[in-house]
Design a protein that fits this description.
The chain is of the alpha+beta class and 827 residues long. It contains 22 helices and 36 strands. It folds into four domains: 3-361, Zn peptidases (Aminopeptidase), CATH 3.40.630.10; 371-476, no CATH class; 493-586, no CATH class; 591-696 and 703-818, Rossmann fold, CATH 3.40.50.880.
Length: 827
């Protein structure tokens, strides 16, 4: 050992010993040994605050937001005093390597590591591990902090965590019961996994629909770390999983990112081997779908990884595994702490190489497509802009009148018309590789066995015409400013278009403000303008009770930036006239939704979130346990989210629903909820013959069964759907729609009723679909309406609100609520 090394070692040791006396242990702050209880979110935050107050030279705590339930969201910056004194300088210098900050990068010996804990609330060991990781970094591993900035988010999902922890603390036995069948190991619906709106935050990184994600991304984009780790738990019988990930890897992932994942995994293995702990790598958890906590950072240049500890919500404080071992909370948090520290260690050892390879990632010159051009409804363009803004992805306004390239709608070369509202997104920008991932027509798959959906291309998701060009498309930075909304003048009435969610939000505002609104089921002309099906009509005659009718309407139009066309007379240039039976009066509707056992919490949550945060319209939740005793006559619409209702819809409930629909009610059944009606007596909905080809696989070898089974799967693929846009369910849409199909369930076209959306072919536009599943899709239903008495059942085979990111599907749900079989009289 040379004298210089000995001197440095002694110096660090002295600092370690000094600070170990200053830093409180988790036990000191919590009042119990860590791992013996589940800590509530505020206790986790209190510990981080305590440590930040004790050693401010080493730790800075930043609150970056609030959850829906008003719990604080925090990150802690942990590094040496010399680094903390110039944290902003380090951050800016780091961003220079990405091109997101001006100037040349200087320092090349600092690594930035971000550790994200507890994205799933009932995978609760990780927030405990966050506290222990902080403590051990400061008391045992300070040498690593000399060239590493560690960013710790102790709980991405505080609302879900406290839902789980509060339930467990109220339910558990003392001492805790290790029998997995006991009540403390079986959470009630909806469980602690999701956030307040029951979204899976680990699948929201790219779509940023939730406040937790939106606020976190602002901080993430300020730092763009070299390494990002997402800490999880899986089933309690599983050993620990860490990198390297499984195939498929997305094609933009570099050889270096692959190699360094392996190096990290081998470093972890060193510690696990020493303790005799079991683990596995390179299985199950792939790197393809872009909205995970491992893939999103990877596509932003980081080494993105998921670590999975056995446990999950069923493990509690301790559970007996199938192998007869007792898995404790202390075991789980110890394993997570070990991989967290190991990650920081190897980052510190490879800081210079991390910087070199990180900078190389942002060279986008090798990307095939140089530009993506998008054109279509200006409201949809604006919604896409909003998404790109959340990721600091740059876009520009088209300057030409046409753009050519791979045309999404025909899956081959073609062109689209452009105007000054058309969008162009180039790949020669810092986040060009993420642009490729989000906009690519069809992600390349190295393996069909994936962990999530395989298609998500934004032009399809937002319902826009698009081309991908191998040459740069002409554009300019500044978009033409949206024209001011003209003030309304006195007129017979006013018409609002119906093509987007912006129009739906305007309708909701009108109804809540007690405006009487009509919609047209047929196109008509007035004042030289043509108005399409679904157009909203607000007349002075319908709103005579409003003394300031024009003034009040103008306020709403300005607030929602809605341009209204005036009509001078109820006598139209072409029929229907405004008083025609084909122009119906919309009523305020009481809308209910099923929740609770049998209901998919994720599907319920997406609808709940949609009503409260996008449509801004009241929604009543009815628990399935209470359905039999509920007076449904108070409601005009009942939504059945994706779910399995066999125990809920018994004979009594089935009769109740039938009678209610026959008397004018409307059920909107989504995805698996259709099984409550398919093939049942009295319903037109039937399963497609030939579903399931299991007999073909009886001689498939055991080792090949999983891969062979993929032939029957559709793992999130895009298909073109033919629409009957004369039906109210499809108002505002052209005669086709690109649907995200999430499974292989197939239903025949109905002999009676309205087949509003259906597959004319089984051609896959993007994503993976097994050959057996695809063969069964031709001529099957996607959207339909069945009349029963004076009411209706609306069938949505494909979930139009999936994870709230398939933006172009949302208007179908609004149409189903307000337009389908809407009576002119009060129900």
């Amino acid at each position: 050992m040379n004298k210089l090394f000995l001197s440095v070692f002694t110096f660090f040791l002295a600092i370690q010993l000094s600070n170990s006396q200053q830093v409180s242990s988790p036990e000191t702050t919590l009042g119990y040994p860590i791992g013996t209880q589940f800590s509530r979110h505020h206790q986790v935050v209190d510990y981080f605050k305590t440590v930040a107050d004790e050693v401010p030279d080493w730790v800075q705590l930043e609150q970056y937001g609030l959850t829906n339930e008003r719990r604080g969201l925090y990150v802690a910056y942990v590094s040496s005093p010399s680094n903390m004194n110039r944290l902003e300088e380090i951050r800016n210098n780091h961003l220079r390597r990405t091109g997101m900050a001006e100037g040349d990068a200087t320092d090349s010996n600092l690594a930035v590591v971000w550790l994200s804990f507890n994205v799933h609330g009932n995978e609760a060991s990780s927030s405990e591990a966050a506290m222990l990781t902080l403590y051990r970094l400061l008391t045992e591993k300070q040498a690593w902090l000399e060239n590493t900035v560690v960013i710790i988010d102790p709980s991405i999902n505080p609302d879900g965590r406290d839902r789980y922890v509060n339930w467990y603390n109220q339910t558990k036995s003392t001492p805790y019961n290790t029998d997995a069948e006991s009540s403390e190991h079986n959470e009630p619906w909806p469980g602690g996994r999701p956030n307040h709106y029951l979204f899976d935050l680990n699948r929201d990184w790219a779509w940023a629909t939730q406040v937790e994600t939106q606020q976190r991304l602002k901080v993430y984009n300020k730092w763009m770390p070299h390494i990002h780790v997402d800490f999880h738990e899986q089933g309690y019988n599983e050993p620990y999983y860490f990198a390297p990930a499984a195939e498929p890897f997305h094609e933009i992932i570099t050889d270096w990112q692959r190699e360094f994942q392996t190096a990290i995994g081998k470093n972890h293995a060193k510690y696990f081997d020493k303790e005799g702990w079991l683990f596995f790598t390179r299985e199950r958890f792939d790197l393809l779908y872009p909205s995970y906590g491992d893939t999103y950072p990877t596509y932003m240049g980081a080494i993105g990884m998921t670590y999975e500890q056995g446990g999950h919500g069923r493990a509690g404080l301790g559970v007996k595994t199938d192998e007869g071992e007792i898995l404790t909370l202390d075991d789980r948090l110890t394993h997570h702490t070990t991989t967290a520290l190991s990650t920081v260690e190897i980052a510190s050892q490879n800081a210079e190489r991390l910087n070199e390879e990180f900078e190389k990632f942002f060279d986008n010159s090798g990307l095939k497509y140089k530009s993506y051009a998008l054109s279509g409804d200006s409201d949809k363009i604006e919604r896409l802009k909003s998404l790109l803004d959340k990721h600091d992805i740059q876009y520009e306004s088209a300057t030409g009148s046409k753009a050519s390239g791979y045309k999404y709608s025909i899956k081959s070369q073609g062109s689209i018309d452009l105007n000054d509202q058309s969008m162009v997104v180039h790949t020669n920008q810092p986040k060009g590789k993420m642009v490729k991932v989000l906009f690519e027509p069809d992600a390349k798959l190295s393996d069909s066995l994936t962990y999530d959906i395989t298609a998500w291309s934004l032009p399809y998701a937002y319902g826009l015409d698009a081309v991908a060009s191998t040459s740069r498309i002409g554009s300019e930075i500044k978009f033409k400013e949206t024209s001011t909304i003209p003030a309304l003048t006195n007129a017979y009435g006013y018409v609002s278009k119906w093509t987007s969610m912006k129009d739906a939000q305007f309708l909701s505002a009108l109804l809540k403000a007690d405006f009487r609104v009509r919609f047209t089921e047929k196109p008509f002309q007035s004042n030289g303008q043509t108005f399409d099906r679904g157009s909203l009509i607000i007349t002075r005659g319908d709103n005579q009770r409003k003394s300031d009718f024009v003034s009040e309407l103008n306020v709403l139009a300005q607030k929602h930036k809605q341009i209204l066309s005036t009509i001078a007379s109820g006598f139209s240039q072409t029929t229907p006239d405004i008083g025609s039976p084909d122009i119906k009066l919309l009523n305020k509707l009481n809308v209910a939704i099923l929740s609770g056992e049998g209901t998919s919490s994720l599907s319920y949550g997406s609808i709940w979130h949609f009503f409260e945060n996008e449509l801004h319209y009241p929604l009543t939740s009815i628990n399935t346990d209470d359905l039999n005793g509920t007076n449904l006559n108070k409601y005009q619409v009942l939504i059945m989210p994706d779910g399995y209702y066999s125990r809920v819809v018994n004979d009594n409930v089935q009769k109740k629903l039938n009678d209610w629909v026959s008397n004018g009610g409307k059920i909107i059944a989504i995805s698996s909820a259709l099984r409550s009606f398919a093939g049942k007596d009295g319903f037109a909905l039937k399963y497609k013959d030939g579903q399931g080809n299991g007999d073909d696989n009886v001689l498939t070898p055991y080792a090949d069964r999983e891969r062979a089974y993929a032939n029957n799967l559709i793992t999130g693929a895009i298909f073109e759907t033919t629409l009957d846009n004369t039906h109210p369910l499809a108002f505002g849409y052209p005669n086709n729609y690109f649907s995200l199909k999430l499974g292989s369930s197939a239903y025949d076209l109905m002999d009676s009723g309205f087949n509003v959306g259906y597959l004319e072919s089984n051609e896959v536009y993007s994503g993976f679909a097994g050959q057996n599943a695809v063969a069964n899709l031709n001529g099957t239903l996607v959207f339909g309406e069945e009349r029963k008495g004076s009411g209706s059942l609306v069938y949505m085979v494909d979930n139009p609100l999936f994870r709230s990111f398939w933006d172009n599907g949302k208007l179908f749900l609004v149409n189903a609520i307000f337009f389908v079989n809407h009576n002119a009289f009060e129900l």
